Amino acid sequence: MSPVPTKEATSSSKAPNETPSEPELARSKSKAGDAEWNADTLSEEGEDAELEEAEKEVLVTILEAVENGSLEHLRAGIERRADLEESSETFGDTPLILAAKYGRSVYVKILIQAGADVNAINKLGDTALHWMAFKGDEACVSLLLDHGARIDTAGEYENRPLHLACSAGHLKVVSKLLQQGASVTAKNSFGNSPLDMATNSNIRRMVKAVQTNGDSERERLQEEAAEEERRKLAKEEEEDRKRAEKERTRREAEAKDEQRRQEVAAEENRVEEAALARIRKAEEALRKAEEDARLAEEAAQEAERARKQAEEDAKKKAKKSKKDKKK
């Protein structure tokens, strides 16, 4: 509901056809200008806010990208050469250590390829290798070692990566670390060796064998791993061959099916064309018969006309002859 106008406001109001005074025009122009300025200001502020928001979105750090699990922001950060070694305030984790801690193998591989320091340590002394060994990620452990990760860095409680892999029961990672020369005698803050930490009987036998036979056992593990890798590659090649054979068989079957479809379609077209040809021939014969009948009818009509004309002529001739005789 609109408020009732006051007496003062009513008395000072002008009729629609009255011309406003100059001060009133000035005030109205001023108000219009203020409105335009406010609109422009609000528009600019809105654009600035959107720009700031966009910049915030773009300028996510690599550490934040790993923390938030955003591959898109991780790749964007690497592309603009953002800091690969920024560390978290709490534990001093670099992006690589944090990715390893979260078990994000893809992030670990991307960061290593981007040049992240594989030997960076956090406030507890742990490296990315500690976490990947603890997580049991053989591929990332191998990648870290291939890029120069130190194998016996003492982490939290003086644990080496081998301690953690043994305690977590990751046989293949333990084997990889032993092959690369990880110490089997190093002790942590509690005086435990990797063997003391091992909970898996196969791991215990493996570590004991290295303790007893030294480098020869490490070489045997390398040969065993190489043989396993060869078997793995052979299996993959066989699977690839089977897939290729299956694909070839599928394509051949599809080609045969397509050929059969084309042959059936061609036969259907041939039958259809033959049927159409027969129909056209019958129609042509019918048209010819109708034309012959029409011509015969016309000839008969013409003969009938000729006969009638001959009769008429004969009658006229006889009549004339009769008249001539009377004369």
From TrEMBL:
<feature type="repeat" description="ANK">
    <location>
        <begin position="124"/>
        <end position="156"/>
    </location>
</feature>
<feature type="compositionally biased region" description="Basic residues">
    <location>
        <begin position="316"/>
        <end position="327"/>
    </location>
</feature>
<dbReference type="Pfam" id="PF12796">
    <property type="entry name" value="Ank_2"/>
</dbReference>
<dbReference type="InterPro" id="IPR036770">
    <property type="entry name" value="Ankyrin_rpt-contain_sf"/>
</dbReference>
<feature type="compositionally biased region" description="Basic and acidic residues">
    <location>
        <begin position="215"/>
        <end position="315"/>
    </location>
</feature>
<keyword id="KW-0040">ANK repeat</keyword>
<feature type="compositionally biased region" description="Acidic residues">
    <location>
        <begin position="42"/>
        <end position="51"/>
    </location>
</feature>
<feature type="compositionally biased region" description="Polar residues">
    <location>
        <begin position="8"/>
        <end position="20"/>
    </location>
</feature>
<dbReference type="InterPro" id="IPR002110">
    <property type="entry name" value="Ankyrin_rpt"/>
</dbReference>
<feature type="region of interest" description="Disordered">
    <location>
        <begin position="1"/>
        <end position="51"/>
    </location>
</feature>
<dbReference type="Pfam" id="PF00023">
    <property type="entry name" value="Ank"/>
</dbReference>
<feature type="repeat" description="ANK">
    <location>
        <begin position="91"/>
        <end position="123"/>
    </location>
</feature>
<dbReference type="InterPro" id="IPR050776">
    <property type="entry name" value="Ank_Repeat/CDKN_Inhibitor"/>
</dbReference>
<feature type="compositionally biased region" description="Basic and acidic residues">
    <location>
        <begin position="24"/>
        <end position="34"/>
    </location>
</feature>
<keyword id="KW-0677">Repeat</keyword>
<feature type="repeat" description="ANK">
    <location>
        <begin position="157"/>
        <end position="189"/>
    </location>
</feature>
<protein>
    <submittedName>
        <fullName>Uncharacterized protein</fullName>
    </submittedName>
</protein>
<feature type="region of interest" description="Disordered">
    <location>
        <begin position="211"/>
        <end position="327"/>
    </location>
</feature>
